[in-house]
Amino acid sequence: MKRIINIAILLLTAVMAAQAASFTVEAPRQVVEGNKFNVTFVLNNGEGSSFTPPEVTGAKLIYGPSVSHSYSSSWVNGKSSSSSSEEYTMIYKATATGKCHIGAASIVVGGKRMATKAFTIEVLPSGSHANTQPQHQTTPGAPTPYSDPMTQSADKTVTGKDLFVRIEMSKPRVYEQQAVVCTIKLYTKYQISQFMPTIQPSFDGFLIEEIPVQPALNKVETLNGERYMTAILKQCILYPQQSGNLTITSGNYDVSVIQFDTFRSIFGSISKPVEKDLKVTSNKATVHILPLPEPKPASFTGAVGKFNVTTEVKPATGLKTYSAATYRYTISGRGNIKYIKAPEVKFPDQFDVYDPKTDAQVNDGSGDMSGRVVIDYTFIPQFAGEFDIPAGEFSYFDPEAGKYVTVPVPARHLSVAKGEGEPSNHYRMKNMDIRPIKGGDLGLKKSHGYIVDNWAYWLWFLLPLLALVALLLYNRKQLKERADVRRMRSKRASKVAQRRLKAARGFASRGDRSGFYAEMLNALWGYMSDKLSIPVSELSKDNINAELEQYGIDEQLRQESIALIDKCEFAQYAPELASGDMHAVLDEAAGVIDRLESVKRKKTTTVQS
Q1: Are the CB atoms for 534 and 490 separated by under 8 Å?
Q2: Is residue 386 part of a domain?
Q3: pTM for this model (two decimals)
Q4: Domain ends where: 122, 140, 158?
Q5: Would the pLDDT of 134 be above 80?
Q6: Cross-strand pairs, 300
Q7: The CATH number of the domain where 388 resides is what?
């Protein structure tokens, strides 16, 4: 009995030889139409989860997957060895003669997903003799930037080479108004359980066009000889508005990575995931902006890129007096097309012309916007006859060629027939040189008294004096209040927040969740900064909570305020997981701000010893 116990102890404490996990598939090479056949996926030396069956064409699934487990161990010459397997069996029925395609099946092992390769089974006509010899396919776990859990122990330090956020610019040098793409990307060798921006990079000096992205760690990239899983966090097209060096500031992020506590047992190595919280700061990115060359053409209105111009008159024929018509000016191409100013068109003086209306139809392309801008000039002829809209020019700057390009705009000849109606008031007032002389009773009097005898005369001397005194007192009060910067910011906090909430309501009406939650975060962080007199760069949820408590806000309202910020941050950076009505979030934010405004600051007392 003692000998048996000693052997059992040795078996329990022995270190089993670790074997690499493999994922294989077993299936017949040929089957007969109408017959059933098995496809078995075998996982050796690993514990699997989240098994994903293959996609199959040419066969119908009858049953599965059925799962079975097996484990074996041996002790030979003082050395132990063990093996385990999991089998996932699918039963299919061949439905058509030809080829039956079995797609890839996958399973998660140790935090990594392993997959088989697709293969084909030949389906023979009914009555044929099939070769039932099985075909085997081995697909070991494909290498990924995620290290093996055995090497990701919880005591290992995560360095800046293992996980970082990088701001990347598509070009180091551009002209004013020339597009440059900014990409904020996460590089990691670890699995990420939580990612939360605390301070976003700023884009001072740029106009921004957001490119919709769905952050997901789904790409592998090599940087400086190291392989990483990457996710694009934010991507936008920037249009610089001034020359010189413009810098995108760094951002701060709270990241939770997954490491493992690994220990051995009689069943092999067991890894327990452990989360580690990190604070990550991205780099800064600087772009050198070249000024547009001088002199600029007279017809240049700020277009940078490559463009074409067409014009047309609607209706093309049959113009009549007092009937509205449209001169359409279409600019198409690639560049800052959305920000081009409407060109000046010279219409005949006999036309009543209204302000142009602009309709931009653009797409965010690879590195720039493309599409067209349609500018409609509405005019109403006031006289019949032959008229001309003179020829013009449209100039744009081509950054690739480094020069201005001028496109001629042809003249338009218009024949206007007599129509029914009369000149519009807009036209008559615009072309009237002298106002008509007023007639009738002018209210003249034959007799009058001395104005100094009227008390109102002296009142006009007294009123400016009183107004001056009141103005001085008011100005003195304003100067005193403005000197108290903290009080002024707190006083303006609600008004500024309401303007931002109004802007967020516009995004909600258009169904733009990304823009809505970005504007909501601007409103909430800006309100807390103004209300509590804390610079935005120093804001955090902890000091917001502490300052609100010192202000005199009760715990429930403080928790609601922090929860609202968390909700908006989560929705902005994980919109695919966000839910709920945006208008309800707006109402909640307005209610929280109103309740905060209704609380008077708690007076602080100092104790002297």
Answers
A1: no
A2: yes
A3: 0.47
A4: 140
A5: no
A6: 395
A7: 2.60.40
